[in-house]
Amino acid sequence: MPQELPMVPVRTDDPLLETVIRLEWDQFQHTDNEGGRAACQGNWPMFHEMRLSQFLTWTPALLASYENDLRQADRTGRNLVTEKYARMMASTAPDIYRERIEPYIPRLSEDRIARQERVIARQVAWARVFAERWPALGGAMRVLTTAQDTPEQTSFETYLRGELGTYSDATFVEYERLVDAIAAQGGNLTEQTVRNTVRLAGYAGLDEAQAAQRTQA
Hints:
By secondary structure, the chain is an all-alpha fold. It has one domain. 65% of the residues lie in helices and 0% in strands. The protein has helices spanning 15-29, 44-55, 60-76, 80-92, 94-101, 110-133, 135-139, 156-164, 169-184, 189-200, 206-216. The N and C termini lie far apart (44 Å). Residues 1-6 have low confidence and may be disordered.
């Protein structure tokens, strides 16, 4: 098992943040969707805000490892963003996934799947605690569990499973260390990520954003 490490988030002025977000965005632009191009593929400000909110919780080692994943994917013609959404279809469109996708994407080992599921279970629990504490903010998020997936709606759990499945072994180890470190410190990764999101949106913190969300409801 990975050792618990002190959590040292990436610096907000680290240029690697913008590099990684731009690499992802470029792959997102080459992601095909049934029914044509999705509206969100043209919304750079929202994409930037959501990805920055997540990456600000990461360690420099994790961010650097993921940058390497994205660059290696570009060199070999692999699109990690496309693959992330394709992996989600194991839940949202299982027949299509089994016939048209699963044979053509990298297969994960049983050990890797088990370790991912451990991380996913912890993050789903964090997301549930967050939604209970800040229900207005939680209500604006994705549904929580894979059991709630539909062809039109993808849960937090399924999205996370799809994303983790695209990480290299080296990147997943760094991510696993991050999650273990946050847990050891009594933290909550969902709370940290959403706090970044609301601050980027101009709120002082989660309480202010919660009050604003209730007013808008």
